[in-house]
Amino acid sequence: MTGMFPAKRGNTFQCRGKQLSFGEVTHIMGILNVTPDSFSDGGDFLDVHAAVAHAKQMVAAGATIIDVGGESSRPGAMPVSTAQELSRVSPVISALVSDAVGALISVDTYKAQVARHALEAGAHLVNDITALQGDAEMATVVAEMEAGVVLMHMKGTPRTMQRTPQYDDVVGEICTWLQQRIQAAEAQGIAPERVIIDPGIGFGKTTKHNLEILKRLEEYRGLNKPILVGTSRKSFIGNVLDLPVTERVEGSVATVCWAIIHGADIVRVHDVQATVRAARMIDALYR
Ligand code: 7PM
């Protein structure tokens, strides 16, 4: 087994009265986008019931974390206001909490005020694609609320990140960067056991970079934090397979299987049922 590192067993992530243990199984984070329906014209039409139903379906299929997001981090996407983002995510988080859906609830935001309200409404962790650098107050909010945090690597901003990203050593540079972000988080009072790391597949990386990150994923184990990987339906899969976003389920599942064997603890996905079935099988073979 040298060179391969199954997640350290018995490591427990604790936040806001909930816990997740790593090493025994792969945790599936289901993506719940609560951006307005593209069929509604102009106004912020949000179907809270549909979002909650989708979350419940993902939990029934085996997701243990639901990642609720109100702003698209799509390359080139325009930012939305704090008020707008909150009006999208709050009702959904409140409904998931009051329905005791069971999964941990993650809020996908880099805005401290959105995070604070979401955590007050009952969310457990913050998925911050800026790794606490998008808002000076975010670290304080996470620390004070005793929430978990995902520190994701991104080169540039969602608007600019895909303009010819360059690295000398993509894996080494991301490792060093994540180490610095872990230190900064802990220095700002976030408990070490509430930190999750993520190499940020697709965020300022070419297809070649994304493949290299996955090939050498075990190098991130040295940082001693649970590793989250988000490959689901991303364009590097489309580039390898020459398939549109609607046809990337198998490619996505393949990357999840690979990622588990190379050290992922959590995978962030759209297609929960297919991913859970594949992950349970790889867990049985590998862990
Ligand atoms: C267009 C491109 C739309 C990319 C949406 C995306 C990650 C994430 C996203 C990830 C963590 C998506 C992405 N990706 N958060 N948020 N890790 N922690 O496919 O890889 O949802 S946005």
Please give the structural blueprint.
Layout: E1 11-15, E2 18-22, E3 27-33, H1 48-60, E4 65-69, H2 82-98, E5 104-108, H3 112-120, E6 125-128, H4 138-144, E7 148-152, H5 170-187, E8 195-198, H6 207-215, E9 228-229, H7 235-241, H8 249-261, E10 266-269, H9 272-286
Parallel strand pairs: 3-4, 3-10, 4-5, 5-6, 6-7, 7-8, 9-10
Antiparallel strand pairs: 1-2
The structure holds ligand 7PM.
3D architecture notes:
The protein has 9 helices and 10 strands. It has one domain: TIM Barrel, CATH 3.20.20. Strand 5 (104-108), helix 3 (112-120) and strand 6 form a beta-alpha-beta unit. The chain is an alpha/beta fold and 287 residues long. The model has no long low-confidence stretch (mean pLDDT 92). The chain has helices spanning 48-60, 82-98, 112-120, 138-144, 170-187, 207-215, 235-241, 249-261, 272-286; strands at residues 11-15, 18-22, 27-33, 65-69, 104-108, 125-128, 148-152, 195-198, 228-229, 266-269. Helix 3 runs parallel beside helix 4, helix 6 (207-215) packs across helix 7 and helix 8 (249-261) packs parallel to helix 9. The chain is globular, with a radius of gyration of 18 Å. The strands form 2 sheets. The chain has an 8-stranded parallel sheet. It has a two-stranded antiparallel sheet with strand order 1-2. The structure holds ligand 7PM. Residues 31, 72-75, 127, 129, 150, 152, 198, 200-202, 228, 230, 232, 234, 268 line the site of ligand 7PM.
